[in-house]
Amino acid sequence: MIAETKHALRVLETSHPPTYYVPHNGVEWSFFEPAVGTSFCEWKGDATYWTVTAGTASVVGRAWSYQNPSRSFAAIAGAVAFYPAHFECYVDDERVRPQPGEFYGGWITDEIKGPFKGIPGSMWW
Fold first, then answer.
1. What are the two backbone dihedrals, phi and then psi, of residue 116, each rounded to the nearest 5 degrees?
2. Bridge-based pairing state of the strands 19-22 and 9-11
3. Distances (CA, A) of 52 to 30, 55, 85, 113
């Protein structure tokens, strides 16, 4: 288990399923090391990417956080989000399905209905 919490922060963006951020104290940081690269979100700010290594398996740059987010997103400072296409993620007891498209990190569960950004033809939604 690399992260677990009952206090995830659920972030919603237009045309996306929710992304869950695990608070800093719910993350087992011994599995994490900074990955190369950053990105910029016009709402949240600069993202830091993480490589997660457990045993001989590594997932490079598929977890991210905002160490110093914009004031509007201050609550997610230091919390970590995961691309569910690369990790086994759950909401309660339901395994999450990834949002379509490699760029997006939304978590799809049975209660979430699309269509979602990431499907063919959605680039300019």
1. -120, 150
2. antiparallel
3. 9, 10, 14, 30
